[in-house]
Amino acid sequence: MGELRLMKGNEVVAEAAVRCGCDGYFGYPITPQSEIMETLMELAPWETTGMVVLQAESEVSSINMVYGAAATGKKVMTSSSSPGISLMQEGISYMAGAELPCLIVNVQRGGPGLGTIQPSQADYFQTVKGGGHGDYRLITLAPSSVQEMNDFVDLAFDLAFKYRNPAMILTDGALGQMMEKVELSEFKPRWTREEILQMSGSWATTGKTPDRKRNIVTSLELDSEKMEQNNIRIQAKYQEIEANEVRCEEVMCDDAEYILVAFGTSARICLKALEILRARGVKIGLLRPITIWPFPSKVIAERARQVKGFLSVEMSAGQMVEDIKLAVFDAGCHVPVEYAGRMGGILPSPGEVVEAVENKLLKR
Amino acid sequence: MEIQDIIKPENLVYQKSKIQLDVISHYCPGCSHGVVHKIVSEVIDELGIQDKTIGISPVGCAVFAYNLIDIDWQEAAHGRAPALATGISRTNPDKVVFTYQGDGDLASIGAAEIIHACNRGENIVVIFINNAIYGMTGGQMAPTTLLGQVTSTTPSGRTVELNGYPLKITDIISQLPGVSYCTRQSVHTAATVRKCKNAVRKAFRNVMDKKGTSFVEVTSTCNSGWKMTPVEANNWLAEHMFREYPQGDLKDVDKA
User: Fold this and answer.
1) Going by CATH, does the domain composed of A4-183 fall within 3.40.50.970?
2) Which of A82, A114, B39, B254 has its CA 20 to 30 A from that of B149?
3) What ipTM does the predicted assembly reach?
4) Contact across the interface for B54 and A72, Cβ inside 8 Å
């Protein structure tokens, strides 16, 4: 059993970063995630593991510092909240194009614009449909507990390096600010120069030695024929990720006639709604996507053959509901797919979810 | 004496740097970039730091610098090279990191990144090509474009009312305590090429000695963008550009 602590989600991201052997964090303050950088500055890992922590002049710079360090094969990360993540989209697109691994943590707040500092899930589209320019995907993990905020830091880095692609932890202000019991991970040493050379020496800018050609990290290719080939190669990688890395949790789905689909904070609210509805004899389950890209479309398609309807519960105007509809459509099923949720920093209550199930699914 | 008797190793008086690659340059004849690339290659070669150097190419004509010099390179988004350099240098303190940026990249879209990287005293070399115009996109106004200068977006010449004043970014950089060396050079004559090489060598040495940021502006020509012959461009540089951008060291902590 690892060390147990009572910690905020944001604090645990910092702790997990140091413990998983992260080489560097570059960030810019924004509510509700500033505790990540503050905790790192308190931990002062440059004195222990050698991890670099730097406050940048903007989110634009943060993500580009991450680009520079990642392109040398280092394990580096940044974090921000919705408006700051919008500013990073250019850098994220460039990193996806140059096939660079990194971790980006988005502790979402309500938008659009400056919006509010309260929790939201309205960056779903931005995260899984692009956000930046060009055809690219972001491996995205959606934790629903402080424990998963801890566990997904290491997992996100693993996936990012396995596929040489940016990975995101998509969470929200509620999980960032909430305190829960967490079992911390064991310390892993940072990679040595030899390990980096072995793992990333074929592409990373580690310094051109006489035994190899120079390494160039770029997303540029003016010859469209070659650029299309680059895209085809990257798309093949995305298909591999979709085939191998889907993660989701199912709660009471086996006998379910109805299924709630929700991730992160919304999924926690749905668990309470599930309890209330099950007590009333409604056969309902919860399907919680853990990776929201790759999306658990196949799992949903399987369940579509079994259930009478889905309800997507989101802290947004209804974004993930579109992906559920696509999955159901691809399965050739015609069961209703409904949405319930709140926007602008308001959490839906379990009662509101119960009411939506009754009105939108049971009375149908 | 036959020519074959002269071409012998012991008679060699000049050769191209080994790390300047044997490829056709994409730069226009007369452009300063080619000479500055040669200087950078020679300095890296002479200091023996090919395996330690990481270059960052900008968006602009020098975007393809990585095709011309045989070191590891990263290509940055427009203006972001100093942020990349920060990330590289901070996590790889044993490396010699330099950015190579034009005036649009460094003084316009990347003004925040360069100011803050220099203000933190990042241990990097900055090579700043100031030719007072956007070369790659076809000759639009740059922040450093002179008053009255005709470009494709100032067809009647740059005016204060519409476009404000030429930005002397190098003067601003020289005021920042994190900067150890800040200089303005040019490569329009054999004598200034030699001086410029000394400045670039000093900048790289400073970074090897961990002295913080070293910033070398090369006040440059863009004869294509300026719609001049190479000779006319060199003359225009000396006559007009040097008045706005006086040549020489603005700061050298070694001499303070």
Assistant:
1) yes
2) B39
3) 0.96
4) yes
